[in-house]
Specification:
This protein is of the alpha+beta class. It has 24 helices and 15 strands. Strands 1-2-4-3 form a four-stranded antiparallel β-sheet.
Length: 610
Amino acid sequence: MSTASEIVAAVGGAPNIKSLTHCATRLRFELFDASGIDQTQVEAITGVMGAVPQSGDRFQVIIGGAVATVFQEINALPEMSSRQPMTDAEVKAAARAKGRGKFAWLDSFFEYLSDSFRPLLGVLLGASLILATAAILDAFGIFDFQSDAKAAPWVFLDAMWRGVFYFLPIAVAYNASKKLDVDPWLGAVIMGSLLTPDFIQLGSKVYTETAGGSGLFAEALRYTETVCTTNATLGKESCVVNIFGLPLQLSDYGGQVFVPLLMAALLAVVYRALKRIFPENVQMVFVPFFSMIIMVPITAFLLGPIGIWAGNGIGDGLAWLNNHAPIVFAIIIPLVYPFLVPLGLHWPLNALMLLNIDNLGYDFIQGPMGTWNFACFGATAGVLFIATRDKDITMRQTATGALAAGLFGGIAEPSLYGIHLRFKRIYPRMLVGCLVGGITIGLLSQFFTGADGVRGVTTGAFAFTSLLTIPVFKPMWIYAVSVVAAFVVAMVLVIISDYRTPEQRAQARRAAEPVEEPEPRVIVVSDAETNQAKQWLIALGGNENVRSVEPIAATRIRVEVVDDSKVDIDALTSAGVHGAVRTGDGVWHLIAGLDAEQFAEGMRRKLATV
């Protein structure tokens, strides 16, 4: 049986799967009933790094880097193609009926943020590795990848990773619109209109020859409707263009993430209103048409400037804290992240990193954040050491995969969900590693100020914090010392104190001991007992109504049925059952006498022949 088949069987089969999605490392199941899933059985499947039961019949299976392949294999299974998916109305009704916590709007907000970014993890990781390669070439003096005067081959290399970040607003708009049940291409096109060369040229300048044919050229704005001013304090130029009598603040929206999030949220309101106004037979034309002529101006004139203003304000506040109290900033970031990531609440900070790079040309959050990541990987390395020492094959496989995903991909989820959140002793030790890494990077930053006056560790691009991206950070030696300190402290603390409680260690030892197989028992069922068992099955509603039969005591049989209403108690009594008691939905106990085991075996054999 394949990994995909085993996973489907372990979660209750295809009929129990309401929906299935995946993120960077996890399969995310929405089930009809998750109460009967054996987490240990799921985690024992080859290729599974861990399992995480969640509220609301949700269940996550941690796969790691191969999650997309397993996801496709599951959907390709014959039993998955035959299941009946819920309609849109059923999905929405189930979502409304589901308990979401004390503040449902807050849950929805963070889900919106998370689902707007999560599908982009793959391309962001790929771009960060291309950037890391460029940084390594820079470190060896092969070329200066931050220089403005580059040869054409290096400009081409830059385009490989810059394209991901420049057009990120379009990708975020697509995902955010899709999350809100709006045509995702409509959201992408609206955001893309602010990234077109025509829009950008509204604030561009050209060179024109001065009067008199002197051969001298002067710089002038391309359009007479555009006025540009320079902020003396910030040293930044801002331009405003007159559009039909209205002032339009021009901005470079490449790399922006707050603007598409605001745009998609308002687009959802407009889109649904337009669908109510227009009949279905003309919605395909008029809903996109009016959405575009409404939302493009609103985004350009209002939401764009608001998004940039809000992002700049938050970024400036964090920059002030980093410059004036770098050690405080360096400690807060790694200690907060371990609690944000499991809840998916880290995306706002990730968005700020992207915004800093776009506005400032560098980011100062990723350096301290890297110490938390490496503390997380260090704790996983400690678990791997113990699992190898104790010959715990399952945990060794889980820790090996999680550590590889972390050190080479910068992905913490396999470690968090596969190991750390399952064993409560790990988090306190990992937090000590975070603290040591934060103090190290903060103290060293006190004595270092970059050429641009910025304290601490900075990076010029969004990079997943892994071994491969260490050269991206400057000064590299401060970052390297800090992440090594975080890694080693967390690893050593886990090795010294173990990641399991004494009870868990004892349970693991018992599980590792060889189990003696009991002698096979032969249950002899007479013809009379077989005939009587057949009558009992008929009284229980027929073979198709009986799910399972199991003797649970010397005189009792436990039976699970599909439909309680089909059970005929009088017929059971007439067929020789001493008593029948319904103990729960679909669960019955039959008082069968001292021959209960024989009757149960007779019923099972009869069911097996159907």
